[in-house]
Automatic annotation (TrEMBL):
<keyword id="KW-0665">Pyrimidine biosynthesis</keyword>
<dbReference type="Pfam" id="PF01948">
    <property type="entry name" value="PyrI"/>
</dbReference>
<dbReference type="InterPro" id="IPR020545">
    <property type="entry name" value="Asp_carbamoyltransf_reg_N"/>
</dbReference>
<feature type="domain" description="Aspartate carbamoyltransferase regulatory subunit C-terminal">
    <location>
        <begin position="100"/>
        <end position="141"/>
    </location>
</feature>
<keyword id="KW-0479">Metal-binding</keyword>
<dbReference type="GO" id="GO:0046872">
    <property type="term" value="F:metal ion binding"/>
</dbReference>
<dbReference type="GO" id="GO:0006207">
    <property type="term" value="P:'de novo' pyrimidine nucleobase biosynthetic process"/>
</dbReference>
<dbReference type="GO" id="GO:0009347">
    <property type="term" value="C:aspartate carbamoyltransferase complex"/>
</dbReference>
<dbReference type="InterPro" id="IPR036792">
    <property type="entry name" value="Asp_carbatrfase_reg_C_sf"/>
</dbReference>
<protein>
    <submittedName>
        <fullName>Aspartate carbamoyltransferase regulatory subunit</fullName>
    </submittedName>
</protein>
<keyword id="KW-0862">Zinc</keyword>
<dbReference type="InterPro" id="IPR036793">
    <property type="entry name" value="Asp_carbatrfase_reg_N_sf"/>
</dbReference>
<feature type="domain" description="Aspartate carbamoyltransferase regulatory subunit N-terminal">
    <location>
        <begin position="2"/>
        <end position="93"/>
    </location>
</feature>
<dbReference type="GO" id="GO:0006221">
    <property type="term" value="P:pyrimidine nucleotide biosynthetic process"/>
</dbReference>
<dbReference type="InterPro" id="IPR002801">
    <property type="entry name" value="Asp_carbamoylTrfase_reg"/>
</dbReference>
<dbReference type="Pfam" id="PF02748">
    <property type="entry name" value="PyrI_C"/>
</dbReference>
<dbReference type="InterPro" id="IPR020542">
    <property type="entry name" value="Asp_carbamoyltrfase_reg_C"/>
</dbReference>
Amino acid sequence: MLNIDEIQNGIVIDHIQAGTAIGLMDLLGIKSNRKASVALIQNARSYKAPSGRKDIIKVEGDASWLNLDVLAYLDPNITVTIIQDGKPVRKEKPQPPKKLVNIVRCRNPRCISSIEEECDQIFELSANGKYRCIYCEQELQVKQD
């Protein structure tokens, strides 16, 4: 069995759908040039995940620069545990953000955000629980596995 040391101060992003953690790291801006140590665990056994597998990201050090709002949009089952002095102090299940700014692109080729280079890509959460472009009302298409 693989053994990854515990972290002293930082965060653990857990219950990530198996095989998606690398893309998640890119969207969160986790890069190797940060001072924080990062551990990526892929295809770990999970009794809760429908597939029986999950990914985990551990970030040791200051993780205040992470934008965790996007987590609930990407995977509603993700949990974030805050670690201080080697002990978990808080566990959160992120809620879907009201707005997604520059996370995903509008697929409508006639949308102003697709035409203008410096226009932010902004999607708002609608009453039906789906995200819509604020410029053209295009509904965000979510990948289905």
